[in-house]
Design a protein that fits this description.
About 40% of the residues lie in helices and about 15% in strands. It contains 16 helices and 12 strands. The strands form 4 sheets. Strands 2, 6, 7, 8, 9 and 10 form a 6-stranded antiparallel beta sheet that branches. It is globular and about 65 Å long.
């Protein structure tokens, strides 16, 4: 039996050489049960799920009843994990296939937690409910925050326990992505002995993600430049909302420019550039402030794979690739400064802008100020033509900075109301604060989904001030602070 709520599969990835994937279906589960379905996303994908009841949805999103036209497969890839190269692959995921939406957009539909694959490396191939719901919450929040991201279509329980430190309810997430081609996919092709793999993968990625680069003098160099631009823009957006990915391994860098793989990710409360939440990041490699540095490192690994396609002369290829990679810090800084000017309502560029921004961040760090609320409070006070007051704001250092900022606002070529619009669009009122996420996940494992739905409702419109959402804008009390997040594998 198959289900057809409107899937339009046209899978091109499996036209690549067999080395890149293994065709296999998800493993059936004992007693699937629907936890949450993203009906709004389904509608944008051109899917009509209205004819399916809870049992039908559970069978569909568990893989027990596959969708019409699906040709599921697990992908092979490699990656540098915390700096160490490893051959990897989808150890607990299968891609159903590529679905084409009514507007012609091509997306991957992927099960995560669907069972063992040839790439499981001894793992059980399953996932626990908590981490799958974390990805659902955070990826949908990132979408609402206007940060490029994969999205979540559904989470179902499997009716089976998975064993991590303790037995936990098993679950499967359905992820929607522009593709699952990663830097690690190129590393896999480059490391393989078959010289036909890299050109085949490059041609596929060029058509799917970089069609404008096909006409360049050196398409591979144009793709590298486009990746540098996408990563610089993406990381600046992460920094804007205080997001910390937690595992910026090369297998988690998507060529689409989307945020992918929400493992031990978290959002910063108190501003500290050295903030780390991930329990496996013991040396702070992927700390908040290190994210642009790691993005450049990952870009260099991508560049290494492209050298044979850039120039037959290795030295010439290296010189051209290095120019792009070495230019990444300046490229990122341009995006970062533009982003921070928006957060502060600044139009145009002034020589002192960078110092003004840096001095505010230094003050926030010293004062242990809340990252999200500080910028939102600045906007609220500006709307009332006053200086923020109370708490850390009652400080001579902040008063001096505020006077400088006010003077800079006076140089804007646009009125105050335009600065306010800029600030309110760049500074969310609501983020997925870690303690509220953990609260929702803990309740969900007890079969109480109310906190999950309340949180998702608050996150759906993050740039609007609503008095009824105070619980989601208030920083955690000392006893509520989340100090570590976990991968869940």
């Amino acid at each position: 039996m198959t289900i057809d709520p409107g899937f339009r599969f046209d899978t091109t990835y499996t036209r690549l050489p067999q080395a890149f994937y293994t065709a296999l279906p998800p493993q059936p589960v004992a007693a699937p049960e629907t936890v949450i379905v993203n009906h709004a996303l389904a509608e944008t994908l051109g899917l009509d799920l209205s004819a399916l009841d809870g049992d039908g949805l559970a069978k569909l999103f568990s893989g027990n009843t596959p969708p019409t036209g699906a040709t599921p497969f697990a992908q092979a890839y490699a990656g540098h994990q915390f700096g160490h190269f490893t051959m990897l692959g989808d150890g607990r995921a299968v891609v159903w296939g590529e679905h084409v939406t009514p507007d012609g957009t091509r997306v991957d539909l992927q099960f995560k937690g669907s069972g063992r694959t040839p790439y499981s490396r001894g793992g059980d191939g399953r996932a626990a409910l908590g981490p799958m719901l974390r990805e659902y919450i955070v990826s949908e929040a990132m979408h609402a925050l206007k940060v490029p991201t994969t999205r979540a279509l559904a989470v179902v329980k499997t009716g089976e326990a998975v064993f991590r430190d303790t037995p936990q309810p098993g679950a499967i997430l359905t992820r929607v992505a522009r593709s699952h081609i990663r830097v690690g996919t190129f590393q896999y092709a480059a490391a393989h002995r078959d010289p036909a793999l890299l050109p085949a993968l490059f041609a596929h990625a060029l058509e799917r993600h970089f069609p404008e680069a096909a006409s360049a003098d050196t398409p591979a160099l144009a793709v590298l430049d486009a990746m540098a631009e996408r990563q610089a823009a993406l990381i600046a957006e992460w920094m804007r909302v205080g997001f910390i990915h937690g595992v910026m391994n090369t297998d988690n860098v998507a060529l689409s420019g989307e945020t992918i793989d929400y493992g031990p990710c978290a959002f910063m409360d108190v501003y500290d550039p050295a903030t780390v939440f991930s329990s496996i990041d013991r040396m702070g490699r992927y700390a908040y402030a290190n994210q642009p540095v790691i993005a450049q490192w990952n870009l260099a690994r991508f560049a290494e794979t492209l050298l044979p396609l850039i120039d037959a002369d290795t030295d010439a290829a290296i010189a051209q690739a290095e120019k792009c990679v070495n230019g990444f810090p300046a490229r990122f800084k341009t995006h970062w400064l533009a982003m921070m000017r928006k957060k502060l309502g600044l139009f145009g560029e002034r020589e002192g802008d960078e110092a003004l921004i840096a001095d505010l961040l230094d003050w926030m760090h010293t004062a242990s100020a809340d990252y999200t609320n500080t910028f939102r409070d600045l906007a609220s006070a500006l709307a009332e033509d006053r200086r923020p007051a109370g708490g850390a704001f009652d400080d001579a250092g902040f008063a001096a900075w505020h006077a400088r900022w006010s003077a800079r606002l006076g140089e804007n070529p646009k009125p105050t109301k335009s600065s306010l619009c800029l600030m309110r669009a760049a500074n969310p009122a609501v983020i997925p604060r870690n303690h509220k996420v953990e609260e929702a996940l803990a309740a969900a494992t007890r079969n109480d989904l109310r906190p999950l739905h309340d949180l998702l409702d608050a996150l759906a419109d993050p740039y609007t001030d609503r008095p009824d959402r105070a619980a989601y804008t208030t920083p955690p009390a000392a006893g509520e602070r989340v100090l570590q997040t976990f991968c869940g594998t």
